[in-house]
Design brief:
6-stranded antiparallel β-sheet, alpha+beta, globular, Arc Repressor Mutant, subunit A
C-alpha cells in the first residue's frame, strides 16, 4: 500500500508505503540506490534498533527476502529529510541510524507501540503522519541555492554541476557544502545518480531496449558511459539488469 501525504509533509515526503510479506521466489535481492533518505520501521519486531533511518546510498545493497516481513516506510524527497535531522544529511551517506537514535528511546517505543496496536495499513499511515509532523522542525525552508540546483537537476536546462554552481553565485566549494548538508550527496554524484534513475524508469515497461539511443537521449556520451554507471550503481550491465529485475524496478533478483 502507498499513501501520499498532503501539505506540509508533501514538501518533504514522496510517499509512505506499507508491505506485509508474501511468498517470495528468491532468498536475496539487490536494491538499487535512489539518492534519497528512507525511514523503515520493522513492524515484525518490537525493538527500536531494528528500525531506522537510512541515508542516500551510492551503491546497491543486498537484502534478505522473507515471507513474514511487515514493514512501514517513509520515502523522502531529495533533501526532504534535512528538517527531521539535527545534523547534515551527508553524515548518513551509505549508512543509517536506529529509530532510537533518531529520537528519544521512549518516543521511539511509543510510536512502535501505536503502530502495533493499529490493525490497518491506512491507520498506520495516519499514526506515522502525525508522528512525523511533530518531529519536523517548523518554518523550515531549503537554502535558495539548493532549491535552485535541485530544480535545475530535475527539470532544468543546465548540463553540468559546474554550470549550476556558477548560476547560484556561490563558490563551487561552498555550493557543494550547502548541497551535501541538505541532500546528503555532492551535486555531481546526485546528478549522475538521478540520470541513472531516469534510465531505470524509462525501461520499466520495456523488454527490448536500444541502449545507445536511450543513453544519448538522457545525457550519456555513449553506451560505454551508460554501462559504467550501471556497474557502479547497480553492479550489473544494462542487459543483466533487464533479465533480473523484479516487479519493483528498484529490486533485482539474485539467482540462488
Amino acid at each position: 500500500m502507498h499513501y501520499v501525504p498532503g501539505p506540509p509533509l508533501s514538501e518533504f515526503v514522496s510517499l509512505f508505503w506499507y508491505f506485509r510479506g508474501h511468498e517470495v521466489s528468491n532468498a536475496k535481492e539487490r536494491v538499487l540506490p535512489t539518492g534519497t533518505v528512507d525511514l523503515i520501521i520493522r513492524l515484525d519486531s518490537a525493538r527500536t534498533s531494528d528500525s531506522g533511518i537510512y541515508g542516500p546510498r551510492t551503491r546497491s545493497v543486498v537484502i534478505q527476502t522473507t515471507s513474514n516481513q511487515e514493514l512501514l516506510g517513509i520515502h523522502f524527497k531529495p533533501g526532504g529529510a534535512f528538517p527531521l535531522l539535527q545534523f547534515p544529511v551527508a553524515e548518513l551517506q551509505d549508512r543509517g541510524i536506529s529509530l532510537g537514535d533518531l529520537c528519544r528511546e521512549d518516543e521511539a517505543q511509543q510510536v512502535l507501540g501505536l503502530l502495533h496496536e493499529t490493525p490497518t495499513g491506512q491507520g498506520k499511515f495516519r499514526v506515522i503522519e502525525q508522528w512525523l509532523l511533530q518531529l519536523i522542525r517548523k518554518e523550515f525552508h531549503s537554502h535558495p541555492a539548493v532549491t535552485f540546483a535541485m530544480r535545475a537537476f530535475l527539470t532544468g536546462p543546465y548540463g553540468s554541476t559546474a554550470e549550476v554552481a556558477d548560476k547560484t553565485g556561490y563558490s563551487h566549494r561552498h555550493f557543494i557544502e550547502l548541497f551535501r548538508n541538505e541532500v546528503g550527496l555532492t551535486p555531481k554524484r546526485f546528478h549522475r545518480l538521478y540520470r541513472f534513475r531516469r534510465v531505470i524508469q524509462a525501461v520499466r515497461q520495456q523488454t527490448d531496449v536500444d541502449w545507445v539511443d536511450l543513453g544519448i537521449s538522457l545525457g550519456y556520451f555513449d553506451q560505454a558511459h551508460l554501462i559504467h554507471d550501471f556497474r557502479e550503481f547497480c553492479g550489473l550491465t544494462p542487459t543483466q539488469y533487464l533479465g533480473l529485475r523484479t516487479s519493483f524496478p528498484n529490486h533485482v533478483r539474485i539467482p540462488d
